[in-house]
Amino acid sequence: MTNILPTLSATGTAPKIITKIDNYRIYVRVGSVRKTEPKPRGGLDFQNNEYGSSWWINKNLDGYNGVRFSEGFGGGMDVSNAIMFVHFSANAWNRIQISTKDDDGFVVHLITDTGFSDVRHYRIGGFDTKVGKEVGRHIISIDPTYTGHSDTGNFDPTVVKQMAFTNDTTGANDFAWFFASSLVRVYKTKEGATGFYGNNPSFKNYADEALTVGWGLVELSPKTYQLIAPFKIGDAIHSNSIDFTDDGSTIIAPRSNKDDGDYRLQWNDNSIPFYLDLQVNDKVNLNGTVFDWGVKSYFDFNSSVGAEVNLTNVVFKGMGEIEFGSDVSGSVTISSEKTTINGADLTGTINNDVYLTTETDLHDLVINGDLHIDTGIDSDLIFTNVKVVGKVFNDSNKKLNISLKNSDVTTDEAGTGNGEVNLLNPMYITFKNLPADNALYVIKEDGTKYLYDDTQTGDYTITIPKSYENET
Prior knowledge:
By secondary structure, this protein is mainly β. The protein folds into three domains: 21-187, Jelly Rolls; 195-425, no CATH class; 428-468. It is built from three helices and 41 strands. The longest helix has 8 residues, at 203-210. The chain is elongated, with a radius of gyration of 29 Å.
C-alpha cells in the first residue's frame, strides 16, 4: 500500500486542504500483460513513473481484455460507505477499436474474492461516450451502492480485495493501452469528507490544489465548479478554524449516471453530501452562491455551535434534505426535496415542504409547500410577512399558537388543544417617543395588568393576543 498524495496545504494564511482520504497506488498486476512500458504516441503520453503505469492488455482475465490489481487491499477494503475514484486513461489511437458502452467497451470491476468469482461490474463507457472518445485522463467515480451495476457470485462491499479494468475490442485487435494512477476512497461522512479550512480560502484555491491529484472539486469555468466527492466547509472535527467568504460561485454536483462528461459516472442518488463542520467563532459568508445539485444528497447546514453563517441571496436547488441550524441566517431560494429549520433565521422563498423543529419565529418568507411544526413543547410563535401556500400542520402532541402579522397561513387542524393549530390575528399597538425612566403599563378594563415593561424608550410595539382584543 503506497500513499502518493502530495501535501495539499499552502503557506501563510492560505487555505488548508483537508485530505482525509485513502489513496492507493495499485502497482502489482495479477495476470499476463503483453507490455508494461512508456507509450508516448497516439496523442497521450503514457509514462511509467511514481504516478502510475501503462499496460498493453491481452485477453487474459477470464475472457475479458483486462488487467487485475490486488496489491494495497490487504485482507479486504470496506467501500460500503465511500465513493471510489479510479484514475484512468486509454490511448487515443486504440479507442476506435473498442466496443460501445452497452457491449462492455470499458468496465471496472470490484472483486471480493482472490479469483474472479464474486464481482460487481460497472460499465463505464465505450466509443459512443466521452470516456472513449476524448484524449485525457478520466476519473471514474463509483458508488458501491449504485444500482446500475451487475453482480457475479456474492459480492460483498465490506471486503473488496481486488479491482480490474477490462475492455471489449472490435475486429482483430485484442489489446488496448491503459494508464491508471490510483484508487481513491472518499467517505460520505462528515469526518471523512474532503474540504478546506483556514483564513480566506476559496473554491478556486481548493480546485487549483486538488487538480494535482484529480479529485474533489473541478473548475469548469471561472467561478463555476463541479463537485465530485463528499465535501465540507470547516474542520471542527480536528479543531481547525475557518473564516470563509464566497462571492457568486456556482457549485455543481453531477447528475446521476451521465455519460456526457468526466466525473459523472456511476453515481447513486445520495453520493454527494455537503457539510458545514464548524466550531464556535468560525465565520462563513456566502454572497450570491449557487448550489446546483443533480443528485438527491443530504445537505447539512445544521450548525448550532456559536459560529456565524451569513447567507445573501444564496440558491440551493436539486438536493435531497437540507437542514439549517441556529448559526445560519440570511436570504435564500431553496428548491429541494425537504427543508428543515432548526433555529435558522431565513428569509426568501422555499419551494418545497418545510419542517420547523424548534421554537422559531418566521418572517419575510414564502413557503410553496406545507409547513410541519414539531417543537416537542407547547409553543407560541410569531409569523410576520409569511405566506404558506400549502397548509400548516402541528406534528407534535403539544399546544401550538401562531400569531400572524401581515401573513397568509391556513390549517386543517384548527383548534387550541394538543396537536392542533391555533392561528391568532392579534392587535398591534405602537407607542411613540416613550421617555426614559418611565414604565409602560397595559391594563385590561377589569383593572388587571396584561403587560408591564420599564425598559423601553422611543418607539415600541406591543402585541395584544386575539383573546384580549375586545377587552383591552
